[in-house]
Design a protein that fits this description.
Elements: H1 8-21, E1 26-31, E2 47-51, E3 58-62, E4 66-73, E5 76-83, E6 87-92, E7 98-100, E8 112-116, E9 160-162
Parallel strand pairs: 8-9
Antiparallel strand pairs: 1-2, 1-6, 3-4, 4-5, 6-7, 7-8
């Protein structure tokens, strides 16, 4: 069996372009490990949400292997490096539409459409270069929320709800 390139970086670039083209703010949710270079002060429950909009980053590159850029955290410019295997999701902050992925090297790409909860209003943090440090979930690490029920008519297709 031949090594087939992952579709994940292509889907991430496509959703990023869709967000930018439609005036949305693209965010990525990242699983942080020893291979990830992000400001640890903003990491919650082993995850960080980064605003990767063109106005919030400098020298953004979404390659097949990693996402790199420079961004400001607390007024200090930092270089970020996120291995493609650690990108958990990319979505538009304003409406929650995007895609989630399985995390880890060697995993099969499975896209999941994200749906924003209409009762939850997005944060108004539009400061230049400041990624939204708000964790996706406010639950403690000991809480195990039940997964949402499958959407009627689409059996077995998981859905995520963003909680801010």
């Amino acid at each position: 069996m031949s090594d087939i390139p992952s579709t994940k970086p292509y889907l991430i670039r496509a959703i990023f372009d869709w967000c930018v083209d439609n005036g949305y703010t693209p965010h990525i949710m990242v699983s942080v490990d020893v291979h990830t270079r992000v400001p640890m002060a903003f990491v919650r429950d082993g995850r960080i949400v980064l605003n990767i909009a063109p106005y919030a980053t400098h020298k953004l590159s979404i390659s097949n292997d990693e996402v790199t850029c420079q961004a400001r955290f607390g007024g200090v410019a930092q270089s970020l490096l996120v291995p493609m295997a650690n990108v958990m999701a990319i979505y538009a902050r304003e409406n929650g539409q995007g895609m989630a992925f399985e995390v880890g090297a060697g995993t099969r790409d499975v896209g999941v459409e994200l749906h924003a909860d209409p009762d939850v209003q997005a944060a108004d943090d539009d400061s230049m270069g400041e990624p939204d440090p708000t964790p996706v979930s406010s639950a403690s690490p000991d809480d195990k929320p039940e997964p949402p029920p499958p959407k009627p008519g689409v059996p077995g297709r998981p859905h995520l709800r963003i909680i801010k």
